[in-house]
Design goal:
- The protein is of the alpha+beta class.
- Helices cover 23% and strands 40% of the residues.
- The protein has two helices and ten strands, in the order H-E-H-E-E-E-E-E-E-E-E-E.
- It has helices at 2-29, 47-65, and strands at residues 35-36, 80-85, 89-96, 112-116, 122-128, 135-141, 144-146, 150-153, 161-179, 185-205.
- Strand 9 and strand 10 (185-205) form a beta hairpin.
- The longest helix has 28 residues, at 2-29.
- The radius of gyration is 25 Å and the shape is elongated.
- The protein starts with a helix and ends with a strand.
């Protein structure tokens, strides 16, 4: 009986080990890496100040999502992580807000649009960075037209208009390198952190 129990436990141990390794690998390769942050009073900050905040928030984020990343705050031997940041860029992404008729709207007696910066369609832009960051896709939501929010006046009462939204986005690329216990260095994660720095809306004739 004792021998039988011992063999059963041993088989269980050997069957669990590969499953755990595969789960580890899965966790590593499916990390939700893209990270968008909101910075209060961002319009009052310089690009350098925004970049400092973005890097600080990125480090906090990586500590949460990358197993063992927080251990870099301690002095220890390999395995280790190293994050290398590229030079941030500001790009402009625009498009029409959601909840509008395809042909636009005419305000016969005057008026305009109420803009809510929540949800709505998504607009994307590919942003080029030098290696090792390369081409990065950046997306923003364009909000929607509703009954409250920011009011945007239509220029006249004779033409058809749609509400157009333009967003400035600061993009911070980074690469996380992993060095294993044998000293082999590989790319663990290649990603970005973004923050919207300005939102403009206007009635565009269609």
């Amino acid at each position: 009986m004792k021998k039988k129990i011992f063999i059963t436990v041993l088989l269980c141990l050997f069957s669990i080990s590969p499953i755990s390794l595969r789960a580890n690998e899965l966790e590593r390769n499916t990390v939700e890496s893209d990270h968008e942050i909101v910075i209060e009073n961002v319009d009052e900050l310089s690009d350098a100040e925004i970049d400092r905040i973005m890097k600080k928030e990125t480090e906090k984020y990586l500590e949460r999502v990358v197993p063992g990343y927080a251990d870099e705050k301690k002095v220890r031997a390999r395995p280790t992580y190293e994050t290398v940041y590229g030079t941030a860029k500001t790009v402009t992404i625009g498009g029409y807000a959601g909840n509008q008729p395809a042909g636009g709207r005419r305000f016969n007696t005057g008026g305009g649009f109420w803009f809510s910066d929540s949800g709505g369609p998504t607009a994307s832009l590919n942003v080029s960075f030098p290696a090792p960051y390369d081409l990065i896709s950046v997306s923003v939501t364009l909000g929607s037209v509703g009954s409250s929010g920011v009011f945007v006046l239509a220029p006249d009462t004779t033409h058809y208009f749609k509400l157009y939204v333009s967003k400035k986005v600061r993009v911070q690329p980074y690469v996380v390198y992993y060095t294993n216990s044998q000293g082999k260095k590989t790319v663990w994660l290649r990603s970005k952190t973004t923050t919207v720095t300005k939102v403009d809306q206007y009635a565009k004739q269609v």
